[in-house]
Design brief:
It contains 5 helices and no strands. By secondary structure, the chain is an all-alpha fold. The chain has a domain of 87 residues.
């Protein structure tokens, strides 16, 4: 179940990441068109492109303009590089990926615990087998040795079970 949850989160993260990347690509493309309109001194077309930015990109764009990017060589390359730029879909993708990783880790722990319980069940069955087979031997020393091995295995398995987590 936890692996399924991790897969669900991963698929959701992929979808959010894809959508966020598409939004960023559209904004970057619109920004390139804005640069062309601005260099052609077409302020009406440039204003149209600014209105087409997503709200998050527009905020970063306004902050980018304040860095005086056309004369300041230290200005970021574009609004996408500004600290004010936030893409909620990319942020959601990161959060979903974190959830997926956590669910996967919990699933791995649960699987390891289940495998330990199965191992101990098999060891208990081996104890029963050894006790049953010990009764078949005619020589007392072999019966005692087989029963002793069964008893040691029983103690080992009981200690192992006692140390397993109870969830």
């Amino acid at each position: 179940m936890l692996y399924g949850t991790a897969s669900t989160y991963s698929f959701q993260a992929d979808a959010a990441s894809t959508y966020g990347g598409q939004e960023l690509a559209a904004d970057a493309s619109t920004f390139t068109a804005w640069l062309q309109a601005t260099s052609a001194h077409d302020s009406k077309l440039a204003a149209l492109y600014v209105r087409r930015f997503t709200p998050d990109y527009r905020t970063a764009f306004q902050a980018w303009l304040k860095t005086d990017p056309f004369t300041n060589p230290g200005a970021p390359a574009g609004p996408g590089y500004m600290p004010q730029y936030r893409n909620p879909d990319l942020a959601a993708a990161a959060q979903l990926n974190n959830r997926a990783a956590a669910a996967f880790a919990r699933g791995t722990t649960a699987r390891d615990n289940a495998e330990n319980y199965v191992r101990d069940t098999v060891l208990f069955a081996a104890v029963l087998f050894l006790v049953a087979i010990a009764q078949r031997f005619k020589l007392r020393n072999i019966r005692v040795a087989t029963t002793t091995v069964a008893f040691v295995l029983l103690i080992y398995t009981a200690i192992s079970v006692a140390q397993l987590p109870r969830t």
